[in-house]
Design goal:
The chain has 160 residues and is α+β, with helices and mostly antiparallel strands. The protein is built from 4 helices and 7 strands.
Amino acid sequence: MTGPAVTLPPEVVIEALRVTDAARCAALEEVLFPGDEPWNAAAFRAELRVGHTYLAARIDGELVGYGGVAVVGGPPGAEAEIHTIGVDPAHQGHGIGRALLQGLLTAADALHATVFLEVRTDNEPARALYESEGFTVVGLRPRYYRPSGADAYTMRREPR
């Protein structure tokens, strides 16, 4: 099962995230995940430094969304984990999050990786997006998010 093809507005460009985007990513994290230890700029720089795949969504050069996936091992048996996806609230609902997710899944699919992620149990829009892209709930992590103590579902998508 794969979600619908994304038709982004023509002004949205999906490309590789740059180290210089780290501060903007951190600023968006503060808005998007205020009660759950939002990542700082150093965390984004570290993710890029170790070679994880991170994508950026831009409108007129401004970063409006980001997402990242880490892959462990190679085929057969590769596994990937979606580390984060975030879209500026002013630009949500236009397919940017789906486009970022599909780009990350393309990277994982190139290695036939099983993909995992965690999502807050109360984040219905994100869970619906993940389910539409073939993820299923495989577990519950009580009090996973800190410091809020919110629970998370672990979700899995089989290799493609």
